[in-house]
Amino acid sequence: MVENRPFVTFISHLVLILGVLVIAFPVWMTFVASTHDQATMLRSPVPLLPGPHLIDNYRQILFEGYGRGFSDNPTWLTLVNSLIMAVGVAVGKIAISIISAFAMVYFRFPLRMAFFWAIFVTLMLPVEVRIVPTYGVVASLGMLDSYSGLIIPVIASATATFLFRQFFLSVPDELTEAARVDGASPMRFFWDILLPMSRTSIAALFVIQFIYGWNQYLWPLLVTTKESFYTIVMALSRQATAVDATPSWNLLMAMAMLAMVPPVLVVIVMQRQFVRGLVETEK
Amino acid sequence: MEKRVTFNERWLPYLLVAPQIIVTLIFFFWPSGEMVWQSVVLEDAFGGNTRFVWFDNFVQLFEDGAYFASVRLTLVFSALVASLGLAVSLLLAVMADRVIRGAGIYKTFLVWPYAVAPAVAGVLWGFLFNPSVGVVAGLLRGLGVDFNYVSNGNQAFLLVVFAAVWAQVSYNFLFFLAGLQSIPRSLIEAAAIDGAGPGRRFWDIVFPLLSPTGFFLLVINIIYAFFGTFGIVSSLTQGGPGQATNILVWKVYNDGFRGQDLGGSAAQSVILMFVVIVATVVQFRFIERRVHY
């Protein structure tokens, strides 16, 4: 701060606290709703403070599912699917883009620039735009209702490749020379020198891609028809838009909490890597 | 920029790029080609007959009033989402940059909504404004406003805007805060010594220096409003009531999957592709300029 103006500082705090409260309010209400029984949640006015049914609701939604003819899928299964998808997408993206960036920075070979542009143009067409034809491709490959169908189509990423390319370009040439003088093969150089040096970039990217994978919605919606492959975000959205005369708000909101908590925890616990990853992948 | 020192291998580099190139070819170029093809052919409902029709699908689209209604809606929607989202997050970032005590805590409390999926955000806001049990809807009713997003189109539209802004504020906030913190203190101190108050310092120094960040965020927010909000629309309003929230990305999906109008949906996709290309080019040109600063 440049000078001391207690009043302006007071206003700043006021605005920030107000902002935090407004942003947290929907989640607070969701949490409150997940701790009451169904009857309470259907009576107006709805409570603003938590009730006594927290454990009941979460036990039911986790192990028995939403029930009542809509879905008998216990939610723990959708959480496992989301976890598989999130980790699969994050690991897959990092793995394929780090080696292709390595090839493009450390080798000269015919078609190198053609490959570079092929990867670059994927930025031009987000998956939301080409869903219908991509669905056709996945269907004709017989990958509907499978983990590979959930994961592989979304792991081609230009941003991750560019991030690693940028980083490799900043690695001093002396390291490469030393490795070559010592007779190290390219893969040896990659494993023993480049990969350990990329640790922080990998961690930052992992956080971002984990959240990206967990929060995928449209893609699972298209490629899964069997409930056993549903992810939590998609199962929640389906449940929320199902027409129901007396909705179980308590269970629905417990489900919403379960969909939010893992990625939010990742952001809060790994905040440093998260901020770094966000700023670097968008550069 | 190129490396001076490289390795000499004949086949290894191809092996290394192969996984990414194969995935890109199968899941990007193949469907994209299919999309462009579908946009210029007419397929009968059973997929038997395919006829090349030049630009008939596009002509049909442009003659369709519903398509232009959706274009207008999307433009208004993205203008609202981008301007509200940027204004709110800039305000919060400027305040967070000012305070010394508690800045870290505020930051933690403001960044986590980034991790909430748009589809989940839609569910949360739908609950808050639910006509029968929603807290905010009840509050509004107490104030004499009959809020029912299930039947009132304008209210549904506003609700989607709010949910979209809510889900994007933390992203904008982080970038604005990083931009603010990179402005040299000495500039601000010099202005303060010359007698400029906080408002003057903000408009004459901070705001112009922040404009590259702001411009970058503007592009990102427009792309977000165009494409990233699919989940919100899907779990909140499904494009309705009527056509009130039928933004382009929802329409592509709805026409293609539910309406089975593959040609029309593909033509819409091709048009959206041009939107993204323009946005990407604008963004890259701008980034190039920022690098040369």
Q: What would you note in describing this structure?
A:
The complex is a heterodimer of chains A (283) and B (293). Chain A has 283 residues and is mainly α. Chain A has a single domain (54-281), classed as MetI-like (MetI-like fold, Orthogonal Bundle), CATH 1.10.3720.10. In chain A, 70% of the residues lie in helices and 0% in strands. Chain A contains 15 helices and no strands. Chain A has helices spanning 6-33, 38-42, 54-63, 75-106, 112-120, 131-140, 147-151, 158-170, 173-181, 186-197, 199-214, 218-223, 232-241, 249-269, 271-281. In chain A, helix 11 packs across helix 15. The radius of gyration of chain A is 24 Å and the shape is globular. In chain A, 46% of the residues are buried. The model of chain A has no long low-confidence stretch (mean pLDDT 84). Chain B is mainly α and 293 residues long. Chain B has a single domain (57-292), classed as MetI-like fold, CATH 1.10.3720.10. Chain B is 73% helix and 2% strand. Chain B has helices spanning 12-38, 56-63, 65-98, 103-111, 118-128, 135-142, 153-181, 185-193, 198-228, 230-236, 248-258, 262-292, and strands at 41-43, 50-52. A two-stranded antiparallel sheet of chain B has the order 1-2. In chain B, helix 5 (118-128) packs across helix 7, helix 5 (118-128) runs parallel beside helix 10 (230-236) and helix 8 packs antiparallel against helix 9 (198-228). Chain B is globular. The two termini of chain B are 18 Å apart. The model of chain B has no long low-confidence stretch (mean pLDDT 84). The interface between A and B is large, with 105 and 104 residues.
